[in-house]
Amino acid sequence: MRVAIAGAGAVGRSIAAELLENGHEVLLIDKAPTAISVERVPMAEWLLADACEITSLDEAALQRCNVVIASTGDDKVNLVVSLLAKTEYGVPRVVARVNNPKNEWLFNESWGVDVAVSTPRLMSALVEEAVSVGDLVRLLRFSHGDANLVELTLPPESALAGIRVSAVAWPEDTSLVTIIRGTRVLTPSPEETLEAGDELLFVAAQAREEQLEDLLSVRREPAAAED
C-alpha cells in the first residue's frame, strides 16, 4: 500500500515509521526545509513541497496513493489537503488530524475526509475509557455513514453477562467488532459468551449509541430467594 503523509513533524514521522515497519510505501511531504529529516525516517520517500499546491501533489503522484494522511498542525491545511486528495486525485482513503476540537465538525465527507482523528478528543476518550464502566466512550468518528467507533465496558450486573453474542438483539446499524478481555483480543464469534468486565468495541451509527448504551446497562433480575 502506498501512503502519502502531509506534515513531517513528530506526528507524521511517527506514523511513517509505523507504516514502514508494516511493509508499506510512505511518502512524507512538508514545505519547511527544517522538517525534512531524512535520517530520522530513512526508508521513506521525502518531498520538500507545499501539500496545498496542485503542482506539488502532481509531483507526489497522489493518484497512485491508496491513502493520504493530513497530519500537519494546521487544521486549515489538513482540510485543503484532504479535499484535494479526494476530489482531484480520487484517493480511496483520506485520514485527517484535527488539532482544535472546535473544528471537528468541518472534518467530514464534504471536505474529502473519511476518518477524522482528534488527538485531544482521543486522549480524553482514553481517560474516560479507563475510569468508566457501563458508559459509552466515543473513540473515533468515521465521516461516511455518520458512524463512530465506540467502546463500552460490560458492568458486572449487566443482564448480558453470560449471554452468547448471537443471542443478543443488538440495535440496527451497530456491529460488535472486537472483545478485549484482559490481555486477549477476541473476534466476537456467534458462540462467544460475554463476560463482565469485557471491553466491547462497536462501529455504530451515532443515532444508535443511546440504544446501545441502554442495552448494555440493563441489570439482570435478582435471583429468587429460596424458601
From TrEMBL:
Keyword Ion transport: yes
RCK N-terminal domain sequence ranges: 1-117
Signal peptide range in chain numbering: none
All copies of domain RCK C-terminal, residue ranges: 137-218
Domain of life: Bacteria
Pfam families reported for this sequence: TrkA_C (PF02080), TrkA_N (PF02254)
UniProt keywords, alphabetically: Ion transport, NAD, Potassium, Potassium transport, Transport
Database matches in InterPro entries: K_uptake_TrkA, NAD(P)-bd_dom_sf, RCK_C, RCK_C_sf, RCK_N, Trk_Ktr_HKT_K-transport
Name the record gives this protein: Trk system potassium uptake protein TrkA
Source species of the chain: Streptomyces silvae
Lineage: Bacteria, Bacillati, Actinomycetota, Actinomycetes, Kitasatosporales
